[in-house]
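Bumping with the actual sequence this time:
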Amino acid sequence: MFVTFEGLDGSGKTTQLRKLAASLESEGRSVVKLRNPGGTALGDRLRAVLLDSRSEGELGGIVSEAELALMFADRAQSLAQVVKPALEEGSVVLCDRYTDSSEAYQGAGRGLGTERVLAVHRAVCGGFQPDLTILLLPPLEGSLARARRRNHQAQQRGMDESRFEREGDAFYTRVYEQYREIARREPERVFVVEDEAGIDEIAERILSVVHERLGKR
């Protein structure tokens, strides 16, 4: 089963992915974890370009269309090298971000539009979709504050993945609303958590949904 986690940085998706992986592994299941961008040798190089705020100065900026193309180059590589082989071996694959992120960030945030993003998805990824998407959408303001605080701390340690976090609130409002639209459009695939319940409570809800889907399979 292919499960993706979506939401703004600071929404808790990475924490919940790790907790789900630990629960499934404790049951004896084979679990593969990865992130977009990243997860392959090529993907890690693309991640450094896409997320490092220094790319704006060193590269003279990244235009929106190039950003979208690089995101899908990473995605195609991870599908071929990680996701599909793991699924063929019977593993549960948990991925931190996938095409929904491009629809939200590049489609809505950058203004490229949903149709353009989904057309690239069909062309590059063959329309390959997750079996289940966990969408974490706590209130926008709290997510942004956590993400910016975390990236400030990372920069002090010499790490920088804050290129997107430097965008303004209007950008993130568009991203947030597009995530809500994706959930409305695909309720069978997308499981939404919109409240700010405790980490363990949310983890239990997610595990329950995953067990249900695994049972049906």
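The tokens above came from a reply further down the thread. The chain has a mean pLDDT of 90.
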